[in-house]
Give the backbone structure.
Amino acid sequence: MSLKFEIIKKDNRTFARYSVLQTKTSIVELPNFMPVATTGTIKSLTTLDLMEMGAQIIVCNTYHLHLRPGEDLIESMGGLHKFINFNGSILTDSGGFQVFSLSKFRKVKEYGFIFRSHIDGSIVELTPKKVIDIQMKLNSDIMMVLDYPTKYPSSYEENLLSVNLTTKWAIESKRYYEEVKPKGALFGIIQGGFYKNLREKSFNEILGLNFDGYAIGGLALGEPREERDWVVREFVPKLPENKVRYLMGIGKPDEILEYISLGVDLFDCVIPTRNSRRGTVFTSEGILRIENAKYKNDERPLDVNCDCKVCKNYSRAYIRYLFSINEVSAGILASYHSVYFFIKFLEQIRKAIREGYFYEFKEDYLRRFKNT
Ligand SMILES: [Zn+2]
């Protein structure tokens, strides 16, 4: 294990905490938001953009990188950081979720997944050990165990199977991890869908294995916000205080604020880039749909409170025009601003926790922030 985690400041009125994580590669301040570079690149941006914005940690995906270009190639190129040219930390997701979301043919076995590659149709197996081997070759700073995600909604039986296999694979992963002693850290994943006793079962079983950090999986799959809030409220504050808490696949700025107030440290989400490519950008005042006719002659930047290079140099009118003629640069400019917005948003949150005004910051932000 190569991970040092230190809580520097706890908020008085919420469970929020400001902490510092030292991975084998770099220092990561928490809470933090990981831009999603699934295939080794963040869509429509470069790793140079990410470093320029101050991204401290990103998430890449084991499933995708295993299928293309393959972990052996990446290892021969000096590992993932060097291959993609990113000097911060890299967390790699295990790929269980992608097996479910991308592969039309898949079988769940006691020992792992068998599926058909969505790229060339070849048969691929992912087992707990193999997933660790791949992540070691990638030179990941934080590796995730193979888990069995479910869809929303899904039956009690399916979630029970998910919890049982996720625990079985977590045990195998931990045993193998201790045997091979990689330099990267290993996080466990809690499943259980929206069934209280299954979440509790998974929580207890995964926590019993003493991972370097804990993720709550199986959220942001289309469930109502109340159900998601319930899982976070119920389980995040009970996680061990001295370990990193990662909420997978989340979220929007208002959710990030709420969940940090419940003690979450780490987030990842595709919405800054996915929504931006479709013309919906995040701003300090809420969501802005740039294709709206009212921006046709608007000389203001996307976000009047943003100091990113897009906001310093381009008007809403120009970016709207680029979208209207389907120029690639439209998505690039919008994505740059939105990812920058998320990175700076988390910087502001960390400052607020450190300086003792997080609660006021949150209340004020939620009052101003419009989600639609
Ligand atoms: Zn901006």
Q: What stands out?
A: Residues 302-303, 306, 308, 310-311, 337, 340 surround zinc ion (CB under 6 Å). The chain is about 40% helix and 20% strand.
